[in-house]
Design brief:
The chain has a single domain, classed as NAD(P)-binding Rossmann-like Domain (Rossmann fold), CATH 3.40.50.720. Helices cover about 50% and strands about 10% of the residues. It is built from 8 helices and 7 strands, in the order βαβαβαβαβαβααβα. A 7-stranded parallel β-sheet has the order 3-2-1-4-5-6-7, with helices on both faces. The longest helix is centred in the middle third of the chain and has 29 residues. The radius of gyration is 18 Å and the shape is globular.
């Protein structure tokens, strides 16, 4: 999609972190932005700093009726949405499946996967009918390959987002709508703080905190570029390929075995 033609971007989880990085990238390109977030204070602070081309709407992404209301309010202000970023999420809980608190599992899946799907349910039909626009779904490198322990519920949700995005892309491409799956590696954000605010459990990272080399602003620019290029996947850290390649090799080995036996 040529972003010079974009009239309105809608971003869930847009008041901080990666969502705010995307919002700033779009604002820099002259695109009016609606940011949706569960945190009303953060929404007020962000919109107060960025002028009249951005507006905020409070949204719990688990609530489908709230999605419909947020969409209506956003489009009444700025017109039809033609860039949708379903980005809101919470962090891993640090629990192995054998010890998993089912309530924590349900929360992670409901927000990280269900919240993304709810955004698709709210907007996809309009995108298809108008035959233009681009949708970005935030997955993770944990949605491409399993990683270290304690992120199992998170990875389940993010693999689901990856599958949702890939399937949606195949459905939307003939209608002129682009879809990208954003698969970020570690980027310093306030994801953990936001998770605690809604009563979630946060995995402890102190023993293996990776070096931060990419910022949320960098990711916002990557997303804008990927929309322009209609990229299927947006990977922020090239070293994720090591895990993806290992996973693909095990799948290939299984296929080769079946061909031979």
């Amino acid at each position: 999609m040529d972003l010079t033609t974009a009239k309105h971007a809608f971003i869930s989880g847009g008041a901080s972190g990666l969502g705010l990085g995307m919002a700033d990238a779009f604002l820099k390109r002259g695109i009016p932005v609606t940011i949706a977030d569960i945190d009303a204070e953060a929404l007020a602070a962000v919109t107060a700093e960025r002028g009249n081309s951005i507006r905020g709407v409070q949204l719990d992404v688990r609530n489908r009726e709230a999605w419909a209301k947020a969409k209506a309010e956003a489009e009444a202000a700025f017109g039809p949405v033609d860039v949708l970023c379903c980005n809101a999420g919470i962090s891993p809980n640090g629990q192995e499946f054998a010890d998993m608190d089912p309530e924590s599992y349900d929360r992670i899946v409901a927000i990280n996967l269900g919240g993304v799907a709810n955004g698709v349910f709210a907007f996809a039909a309009d995108f298809r009918e108008r035959g233009r626009g681009h949708i970005v779904l935030t997955s993770s490198q944990a949605g491409l390959t399993t990683t270290v322990g304690g992120v199992g519920a998170y990875s389940v949700a993010k693999f689901g987002v990856t599958a949702l995005g890939e399937q949606l892309r195949s459905e939307m491409a003939p209608r002129g709508v682009g879809v990208s799956v954003l698969c970020p590696g570690y980027v310093a954000t306030n994801l953990g703080t936001n998770t605690v605010k809604i009563g979630g459990d946060v995995r402890k990272y102190s023993d293996y905190m990776p070096e931060v080399t990419i910022t949320a602003a960098d990711v916002g620019e990557m997303v804008a570029d990927a929309i322009e290029q209609n990229m299927a996947h947006i990977v922020t850290h090239k070293d994720v390929w090591r895990g993806v390649e290992k996973r693909m090799n095990t799948i290939k080995a299984a296929c080769d075995y079946r061909l031979e036996n």
